[in-house]
Amino acid sequence: MNKLAPLLALMLFPSSLAATYTVVRGDTLWGIAQRSGTTVADLRAANGLNTDALEVGQVLQLPGAAATPAATSAPTVASLSGVQVQTPARVKEGDPFVLRLSGDNASRVRVRFPSELNEDVRRPNEWLSPVQIGGAWVVLGRVVLGQTAPVRYELELDGVSAGGQFPVGPLGQPVQNLNMPASIAAVLQDPGRAAETAAVEKAYELRTPPAWTEPFAQAIAGGRRSSGFGQPRRETAGAKINYHYGMDYSAPKGTRVQAVNLGRVVLAATYPVRGGLVVIDHGAGLLSLYFHLSKIDVSVGQSVSRGQKVGEVGSTGYSTGPHLHLEMRLRGEAVDPARWVDQRLPQ
Ligand SMILES: [Zn+2]
């Protein structure tokens, strides 16, 4: 699927502008070099550094920026001693994706995504350790809806960094006007909404070990897809654009809803917007969420197996008719549920 290429992170670029940068918490020399279109060697030379250690507040002279990696469209591939990484050639808005790590040191690498620093995402640029799924060491990534800048990744092992990037394409869906009736839109003003938001945000913070070993299943049998993932839409005429963070399946009230994979129930209650809600933690920062249920069959703390019934379709919360809204969230950000079906990992 992807070809491995030699390290590109230390290519030399000619200087074209001078600037300074003030170090913030979590910065590395490599990351600063990558973001400013220069190299670690040039940064060291420009600042007389003989160590890679940085201090918060330290001001660095940036020796120059030039043909930055962001200007290219082809994926670049990084390598470190004893580690190879395989990335997708290309992703699109709302995609989950997988960095596959191989080599003797694959399990010891740390990975982060510096491009997230420019995005509205939860815990941007978080250091991630590979997890073993299906016999491979992987790091899961996500592209948020509405964002099409290239994904940049950084690998770190024993103080040495490398990195690369790959392009992101648009979903290209037209904006839909929902024209929700005022009686239903009123739930968005419900005073109970703050507690609902806090409960799901807490679930988004979970970073438990991956629980699943089998491919993901459908959440509902025979449901008709009524609204696709990532649809940009306005609740009422003239309102700002929101994205549809899940996949809707139209089905009669009482239709069986099942867990898409092995996991542990972390929320099971009825809320103003999501209605009857079940949230399952699958580990590795991945949650599945089942909205608008008329009946809930599981409780918090319970382990569920792939295909186990978790509840029944309903129209509770912010909903105009019986349907299941299924979301998959990776470290808190919505990713396309269809990319997991019949897969252990998104391809
Ligand atoms: Zn929906």
Automatic annotation (TrEMBL):
Domain named LysM: residues: 19-62
PROSITE patterns per UniProt: LYSM
GO MF annotation list: metalloendopeptidase activity
InterPro entries tied to this protein: Cell_wall_metabolism_enzyme, Dup_hybrid_motif, LysM, LysM_dom_sf, M23ase_b-sheet_dom
Pfam families: LysM, Peptidase_M23
Keyword Signal attributed: yes
Name under which the protein is recorded: LysM peptidoglycan-binding domain-containing protein
Naturally occurring in which organism (per UniProt): Deinococcus radiophilus
